[in-house]
Amino acid sequence: MFYQLSPLGDQAILIQLGEDINMANHKKVQIIASYLDDQPFEWMIEYIPAFTTVTIFYDPIKITQLNQRSQLPYDFVCEQLNNVLLGLTTGKIIESKTILIPVCYGEKLGPDLKMVAQVNNLTTEEVIDIHTSVDYLVFMIGFSPGFPYIGGMSKKIAAPRKKSPRLKIPERSVGIAGEQTGIYPIETPGGWQIIGRTPLKLFRPLEDSPSLLKAGDKIKFKSISYQEYIEWENDNG
Amino acid sequence: MITIIKPGLLSSIQDLGRYGYQKYGVITSGAMDPFAHRLANLLVGNKENKPTIEITLLGPVIQFEQDSLISICGGDFSPTINGKLLRAWRTVLVKKGSQLKFGKARTGCRAYLSVAGGFSIPTIMESQSTYLRAKIGGFHGRSLQKGDQIMFDSPSRLSLKMIHQLSKNLTDQPFDEMNWTITSDLIPNLKINPTIRVMKGLQYKLFTNKSQEAFFTKPFTVTTQSDRMGYRLQGPHLQLEQANEMISEAVSFGTIQVPAEGNPIVLLADRQTTGGYPKIGQVATVDLSSIAQAKPGDRIHFSKITHEEAQLLFLELETKINQLKHGIYNKFR
C-alpha cells in the first residue's frame, strides 16, 4: 500500500493515502481503520479517518515506557506503522451495511424543497424520487458529532448554499449543498438547503457508539409521510 | 458541596478531554490549559484528570457548604476568601460557610479550581468535560449558573492526610494553606505578549516566502472572536503561493490553520475534529498553556522550533511533573 507519514504536532501522525476523494482511497482508509479497531497499538489514544488520510493520536509517555531504545516517540511510531502498513496490501474485505434513513420531505420540515426543485426544473416529487433512488456512501464523520460526509448524490438535484446561513438548523434536518447531501445530527447554524427531516437520532451520546453512522456505511433515504414521521419521533421518546 | 453564588463570565466543568470518539465527530473538549488543570488536581491529592471548574476572564463567587480542600491554578484572578487574599498554586483548606470570590483576570485568561475528590459529575463517553455546543457532559451539559450546587466525590488517602494536617489550624480562620508550593520553575510566567513555540505545519511550504517569514517574525493580535474552539488572530495576511482546495483531514490541539482571507486561527480545546484549511503551524504541546492563557488584545509572537525539539521539551516537562507528583506523595508518606 502506498502511503506517506507526516507529523501533526508532537502527539499525532498523519497517514496520507492519496490525493483525491475516490473509492480506492476510501478503501485504503477503511482497511487501516479496521486494522486499528481489531489490533489497536498499545500507545494509540485514538484515530480519525478522513477522505484520504488516517490520523493517529498517540501517548508519548506510554511510548517511552514501551520503547527500550532512546528513540523519539515519533520515530518509534513511524517504525511500528511501517511494519504494519507495508504488509497491508490486500487487507480483508470490509462488509458495509446499508442503513435506511426515513425522511419526511418538504412542508415545514423541509422548507427549501421547492427551491431545490425550481433551480433544477423539477417537481418536488421528482427531487424526492432522485434523492431516494440511490445508495450513498459515508466517506467520513466530522464537522459535528455524527455528521456524515456523504458521496453519491445525483447532480440533477444539486443546489447552491444559502447566501446567508440560518442561525439554527433543527437537529436531524436533511439538506443539500452544492452536489452534496447531508444530515445535521445536532442543532447548528448552517447554509444548506433543507429538504426534509428524519426521525432517526444520528447522535446518541449515551450509547456505546454515539454515532448512528460511521465511515464506510452505505445509506439509503426513504420517503415517509408526516404522520409516520410523528409516530416514529414519538417512539424515540 | 459548593453553591454557585455568581457564575462569572464562563465557568464550566472540564477534565483532560474526551478521547476515543473523535472518529464519530465528537470533539475532545477538556481544559484549555491542561497543565494548570493537572497541577490543581495534584495539589489536592487527586488524579490529574479529575473534573475541575474552568473559569474565564471574570471569575465566579462560590460558597463552600462543607470544609473543602481546594487549589487554584492558572491565571491570577485575585481570589479572596471572606475578603482575605488567597495564593494560587497552593493547597488550601477552606472552612464550611466561607465564600471564595474571584475577580477579573489580572494575568492570564483562565484558572482552574479543584477540590479534593473532584466534583461529582456523571461520566459521558468516558469524560466529565462539558461539551457546550452538544449540551452534554459536565454539569447538565452547560456552563455553571447561579444557584447550582455541586457535590464532591470521596477524597483519596493522600487528600485525607492533607486535610488532616491543615484542619488543626482552621478553628479561628476561614482558611489555611500549606506552607509549601510547587517549584518555581514549574509555575508559568504569564506574559501579556507571549512567545509561542511552533513547528512548521503540514502545508507550511505552500505559503509564499513573505508569509512564511511574517508568520515567524511579526506579532499577531488575539481578536475578540476567540473562544474555547479557537483563537482568531489578526496580523500580516498569510497567503498561499497558489489557491488550493484542500481535502478535510484531522486537526489537533494547537493546529494553526489559515482560511483564504489570510488570518490564522489557532485551534484549541473545543476545535472540530477535522478541518479543510491549510495548516501553517502547530503549537508545541508544552506551549498550549501559554496560548490558552492569552486573552483578546494580547500580541503573540511565534518562534520556530523543530519537531524533534518539541518532542524533547514535552518529555522534559512530563518528567518534571512526574517528579512533582512523587514529591507531593513523599511529603505525606
Descriptive notes:
The complex is a heterodimer of chains A (237) and B (333). Chain A has 237 residues and is of the alpha+beta class. Chain A folds into 2 domains: 4-85, Gyrase A, domain 2; 98-235, Cyclophilin-like (Cyclophilin). Chain A is built from 6 helices and 13 strands. Chain A has helices at 23-38, 60-66, 73-85, 113-119, 124-133, 226-235, and strands at 4-7, 12-16, 44-49, 53-58, 98-105, 136-141, 148-151, 166-169, 173-177, 180-184, 188-190, 193-197, 218-223. In chain A, helix 2 packs across helix 3 (73-85). Chain A is elongated, with a radius of gyration of 21 Å. The relative contact order of chain A is 0.15. Chain B is α+β, with helices and mostly antiparallel strands. Chain B has 5 helices and 21 strands. Chain B has helices at residues 34-43, 157-167, 209-217, 288-292, 307-331, and strands at residues 2-6, 12-14, 52-56, 61-64, 68-76, 80-81, 84-85, 92-94, 99-101, 107-115, 149-150, 175-177, 195-200, 220-222, 230-234, 249-250, 255-257, 265-267, 274-275, 279-283, 299-304. In chain B, the strands form 4 sheets. Chain B has a 7-stranded mixed beta barrel with strand order 13-20-17-18-15-14-21. In chain B, strands 7-6-9-4-1-11 form a 6-stranded antiparallel β-sheet, with no helix packed on it. The two termini of chain B are 28 Å apart. The model of chain B has no long low-confidence stretch (mean pLDDT 95).
